[in-house]
Amino acid sequence: MSTLKLLLNLVFIGSMTMAPHTTSPFIPGFDISAVTANAQSLPTHSWEWGTAAEALLKMNSPLLSVFGSNPFPVLAIPPTKMDFLLNSAPRWSNGTIPQREDVPELWGDFMYMAPPFIAYFAADSNNASLLEIAYLQCGLYREVLLFNSNASTPSPTGTSPTNGLWQHIFGPQSMESGLWSTGNGWAAAGMARVLATSWQANATADLTGGDGHGFGEISGSSLLAAVAYRMVVLAPTAFPAATGEPPITNTAIPAVNPLGPEGNNFVVLMYAAWRLRSR
Ligand SMILES: *[C@@H]1O[C@H](CO)[C@@H](O)[C@H](O)[C@H]1NC(C)=O
Ligand SMILES: *[C@@H]1O[C@H](CO)[C@@H](O)[C@H](O)[C@H]1NC(C)=O
Ligand SMILES: *[C@@H]1O[C@H](CO)[C@@H](O)[C@H](O)[C@H]1NC(C)=O
Ligand SMILES: CC(=O)N[C@H]1CO[C@H](CO)[C@@H](O)[C@@H]1O
User: Fold this and answer.
1) 3-class DSSP state of 18
2) Which ligand is the nearest neighbour of the Cα of 199?
């Protein structure tokens, strides 16, 4: 916990010293500085600090994110972290790594946390089989939460019983089959990061057959909008229609405080993605 808070502070300090990108030419119609300040000050849990670190990185040092041009600066992630992730928790029946340490339980939220980390670690250590694990985990989560199936082969796009929306949690502890928008945002944004990482590692064609197609309240909306803006830049042929301005131009102002730590971070992520698309 203190490690994560330290990481957040380091990212923030680093982003201040590493050529911060001026935001002035990219005015979204709401006070992005106020949202960013909230995004940094509100987190109190590990995943909120992690999301804040990610949002500040994209906001202030976008070239170092997996969507930027220098995503793998020299760093050393201790291999023990990867061993823990891959080997410590009881797997779901189709081989999926669960969100929980004690029970096999799958949460859409997980998609933003573990697969992007596994993919990044794999690309950084030049480990193709590990990169494939990150990709397969996305597919296996998709099977369970989108198709309510435990198959190991991907179900065809367009055949989900929930019209393309992911259910939130499958498992014995906190089963929650609702179609939570933020859960869908976590899933989409996590898969976009895995896709970008594979792309940067020149492995996308190997994993997907070339087109990246397998990756098929305001927090969820802004995170999903961030993904849409990212995909326009990442895969303009597959995503030609995601244009327009941030959808929160007016509503974000009254919602800034009630948004909470995650919501503020999602708005920062959306802004950073929109800014990139607008360049
Ligand atoms: C790649 O990662 C896997 C999983 O952690 C590990 O078992 C394997 O030894 C790694 N391969 C290389 C070449 O480092
Ligand atoms: C998938 O496996 C889980 C156990 O891990 C089981 O509870 C569930 O019913 C299975 N779902 C389907 C659709 O077979
Ligand atoms: C991907 O390919 C480009 C061009 O060949 C190369 O500059 C880059 O270093 C490669 N990236 C990785 C992670 O191997
Ligand atoms: C990787 C893995 O363990 N996949 C399993 C997922 O579940 C199906 C059964 O539905 C198995 O056939 C796969 O081997």
Assistant:
1) coil
2) 3
